[in-house]
Amino acid sequence: MSLPDGHPPIPAPDRIGVLLVNLGTPSAPDATSVRRYLAEFLSDRRVVEIPPLIWQPILRGIILRTRPKKSAHAYQQVWRPDGSPLAAITKAQSDALQGAFGAGNPVDWAMRYGTPSIADRLAAMRSDGAQRILIAPLYPQYCAATTATANDKAFEALAGMRWQPAIRTLPPYHDHPAYIAALKASVEESLSRLDFEPDAIMASFHGMPQRTLELGDPYHCHCRKTARLLSEALGRELTVTFQSRFGRAKWLEPATDATLAALPGKGVKKVAIVAPGFSADCLETLEELAIRGRETFLGAGGSQFAYLPCLNDSSGGIDMLRTILSEALAGWAQPA
Ligand SMILES: C=CC1=C(C)c2cc3[nH]c(cc4nc(cc5[nH]c(cc1n2)c(C)c5CCC(=O)O)C(CCC(=O)O)=C4C)c(C)c3C=C
Ligand SMILES: [Fe+2]
Ligand SMILES: [Fe+2]
């Protein structure tokens, strides 16, 4: 049957899309690109909850004049031939999951800040015929500054669509048995490759302002629960810390850097550190933990330090994503 004159083409029916979303990263490791990225990121009111009239002059007048050069230097130390680790790994995860939810059902990836944007990738999926889309912010622990803002951005894009796809969002998976099992296997595999037995294993999560916990954000509880379950699965104690403090407010404690500096004085000379809250290695793990964390620990009298990688696109990490995404697609798509 042909369409009446002037009728727009009807998208091919019934595809089910999965859009992996991560935080975002500069397009290049130089101060100009980092400034553009930080301006967008740090203007998000879900991230910095200070009224814009007060915050924007501080951001534009101080932070964006000083931080981009320092951060660009940090990015240069971890940049890969295929770009920023966060973007390259998220793309690899998306590629590895292609076809996992049924032939013809697309898996794609987007970033909350910068490119590829959530709006672009959602529009592309929609015009390729996806009438049902799972938005999957890849944050195991729910946080308004990460999960909620990714979903906000997706719904902002939907607000401009006449014919919206049906939408689901991926719930937090901080206590999902498949996630804990994948972390356990990954940590054990990484530990088995070390040429030393660590005195302590640290689990470092990205920090948040303490105030967000008091306001009811479940992030802190989710991190603690992940750490407890992982510790039980490993059958050994984990030292839980929070990293990447930003600004002057009080952040969640104990801080990763202060803990690394204090442990050797308490007789802990060999340490392994894992970052279970990051689904992909990025600046915060590869530079802040693996480079600067090592310097801090060894400089304080530690003798051995190991950074254990994130799940990334390892086979265990991809199997875990396939499981939790399939569950979120229940009734929509059967696993391939
Ligand atoms: C995993 C969860 C994350 C939470 C929670 C989070 C909160 C948060 N972050 C900042 C400030 C910065 N974070 C930066 C980088 C960064 N943060 C996360 C994840 C979480 N952030 C990731 C994955 C990354 C890495 C990006 C990359 O390109 O590799 C940065 C930028 C780098 C820098 O200049 O140091 C800032 C700034 C705040 C303020 C915040 C919560 C309030
Ligand atoms: Fe961050
Ligand atoms: Fe950092």
From TrEMBL:
Superkingdom of the organism of origin: Bacteria
Gene Ontology terms: biological process: heme biosynthetic process
Compartment list: Cytoplasm
Family, similarity comment: Belongs to the ferrochelatase family.
Primary residence: cytoplasm
GO MF terms, alphabetically ordered: ferrochelatase activity; metal ion binding
UniProt binding sites for Fe(2+): H206, E284
PANTHER family hit by this protein: FERROCHELATASE (PTHR11108), FERROCHELATASE, MITOCHONDRIAL (PTHR11108:SF1)
A Pfam family per the record: Ferrochelatase
Name of the molecule in the record: Ferrochelatase
